[in-house]
Design goal:
single chain; Rossmann fold; six-stranded parallel β-sheet; two-stranded antiparallel ribbon; 14 helices; globular
Amino acid sequence: MQVIIHAGAHGTEEDRLMKTLLRNKEDFLMRGTAVPGPAKYRSLLKDCMAASKTGSPSADSRDLLWDAILEEENADRVILSNPHFFGSQRDALEGQRLYPEAEERMMALKALFPRDELELFMAIRSPVGFLPKLLEKAGPGRRATVLENSNPMDLRWSALFARLRAALPDIPVTVWCYEDSPMIWPQVLREFGNLEPNSKVMGGMDMLATIMTREGMRRLRHYLHEHPQLTEAHKRRVYAAFLDKYAVDEELEEELDVPDWTPDFIEEIDEAYDEDVYHLSQIPGVTLISP
């Protein structure tokens, strides 16, 4: 069994992705990929992962887990998604170290599914947006501590995935940038479903619809309907052209409430992030989905 572990980074599009994957549930299953509802496994896996800290899973635990998760469905590939696979929002950052428990938690998942082929899927986000989202529910004390101890200029996603690849070299990783999601959303969905490059997916323009006016989306859908033979690369150029004219500016701007983050400092953070993404793409075993 191929097992896709989607450990979404906090503050990306985890909930929207899960809803869109469930919209494609029947089509994916026809092609061998199961998309079980998260209620079937999130609490179950959390308990099993916690129990694995005190002992090894029993010999039959893997089969029992799949019986509970898949019920009557037959598949050779399954998608398991949980933004808390690597820890809660409070556990997501330790100084400059992103998701310090990531390796341990992936090892626990591997122990639960010893005969299966695990793959990791995850979105990342610039510290400019990631840190404020991570702290939006934190109390004043926690917020001040994190901002004092974590320099956004030095947060490196490439370091997280280098750690994961070193600890679990047999688990391939697929990554994409949250900022690119509107342009690459159909491809992200196809990668989850193991579909051919031009296969149709439901909800492929859901992310675009969040940053484009209704009139723009109406005109875009009409244009695509009139030009059904466009390649994926050409479609992305069309998306960009329509966004240039019909984007909702308020949705494109990050609302930041962080003292001392000047426009120049924010630009420096984003430049460091761009360099980090490049280094991440060079890590063996890591596939970056990009526009």
